[in-house]
């Protein structure tokens, strides 16, 4: 038997499944991670009382300025993220909502993810060392580089590690004792491979906020992420896009000397 509904009642009845879905979504865990600006660390300095970069087999320089690697903080892989959390983060510039699979490898336990991130950091350190020594033509020398940075995982500090090694060994390369940083607080992010190619990392709009908070005036960003970096760029922070380690070094040398061109996003 078919019973004809008036329009108001028809709308109300049709809305019931939508209301039920919204109610369920409000209390059900969602496949997202909430992220925010994380710590930064000066790779030219110390972390928890230990030097981040230790070089043996070659003389090193006393450096001025800072090279700050940047991070984001994310909710743990097993955290329950609710609709209210997501909505709140949408309206804030110091938080971001990211698909959980873009932050953590899927199908792994929390312990497996921690191990994965540690392995990624170790591989990044090895690649950063290789890239820096390649850049300086020092691969045939008996030089050992040790990198130590507690409580940070993943590969995104590679570029800054390489720049730190170069600054400690060679400075600005002019032979006048100048620093690659020019005495500035430089921050940045980017993966690196042994050939010196810089790769994208994600979360750059949050990392620029962390950089500005900790005193940086220049931020090195993988060129392909310029758009993301500009989205919430703090005032007074200059973006310098890079695609290679050589390009990053050249940009810093130009900034320090005031000569030559410095790329911009």
From TrEMBL:
One of its GO terms (biological process) is proteolysis. The keyword Cell inner membrane does not apply. InterPro entries: Lon_proteolytic, Ribosomal_Su5_D2-typ_SF, Ribsml_uS5_D2-typ_fold_subgr. Residues 1-28 form the signal peptide. Keywords: Signal. The keyword Methyltransferase does not apply. SUPFAM superfamilies: Ribosomal protein S5 domain 2-like. Residues 154-238 form the Lon proteolytic domain. One of its GO terms (molecular function) is serine-type endopeptidase activity. This is Lon proteolytic domain-containing protein. It comes from Streptomyces ferrugineus. The lineage of its organism: Bacteria, Bacillati, Actinomycetota, Actinomycetes, Kitasatosporales.
């Amino acid at each position: 038997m078919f019973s004809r509904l008036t329009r108001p009642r028809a709308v109300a009845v049709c809305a019931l499944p939508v209301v039920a879905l919204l109610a369920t979504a409000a209390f059900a865990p969602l496949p997202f991670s909430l992220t925010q600006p994380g710590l930064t660390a000066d790779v030219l300095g110390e972390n928890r009382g230990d030097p981040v970069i230790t070089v043996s087999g070659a003389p090193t320089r006393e450096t001025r300025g800072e090279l700050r690697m940047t991070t984001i903080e994310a909710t743990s892989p097993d955290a329950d993220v609710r609709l209210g959390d997501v909505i709140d983060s949408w309206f804030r510039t110091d938080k971001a909502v990211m698909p959980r699979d873009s932050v953590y490898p899927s199908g792994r336990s929390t312990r497996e993810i921690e191990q994965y991130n540690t392995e990624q950091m170790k591989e990044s350190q090895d690649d950063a060392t290789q890239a820096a020594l390649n850049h300086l033509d020092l691969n045939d020398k008996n030089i050992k580089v040790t990198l130590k940075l507690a409580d940070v995982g993943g590969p995104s500090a590679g570029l800054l590690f390489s720049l730190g090694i170069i600054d400690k060994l060679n400075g600005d390369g002019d032979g006048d004792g100048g620093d690659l940083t020019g005495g500035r607080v430089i921050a940045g992010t980017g993966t690196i491979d042994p050939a010196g190619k810089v790769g994208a990392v994600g979360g750059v709009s949050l990392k620029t906020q962390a950089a500005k908070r900790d005193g940086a005036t220049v931020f090195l960003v993988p060129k392909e992420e310029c758009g993301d970096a500009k989205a919430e760029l703090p005032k007074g922070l200059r973006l310098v896009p890079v695609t290679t380690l050589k390009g990053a070094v050249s940009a810093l040398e130009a900034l320090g000397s005031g000569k030559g061109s410095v790329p911009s996003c």
